[in-house]
Amino acid sequence: PPSADFATRCIHDGQDPENFIRRVVISPISLSNIFKQFSPGESAGFDYSRSGYPTRECLQQSFASLENGKYA
Questions:
Q1: Mean pLDDT on 15-34
Q2: Is residue 41 part of a domain?
Q3: Is residue 72 part of a domain?
Q4: Which Pfam families match (predicted)?
């Protein structure tokens, strides 16, 4: 939230427990993973770690929020 102190925002901005299967409060740092696909070539959000990763997405959202950016 913009009204929170900067230090608090550094911890919480970009973290959305609803985006994680186990509803963890802080996104986990994973070194590797296998992403679910509906069918070959049809991903459920992430398909390959180099093109996108949940941890990286959280970090980008956090930076965008802290810099009052519109997009991550």
A1: 68
A2: yes
A3: no
A4: Cys_Met_Meta_PP (PF01053)
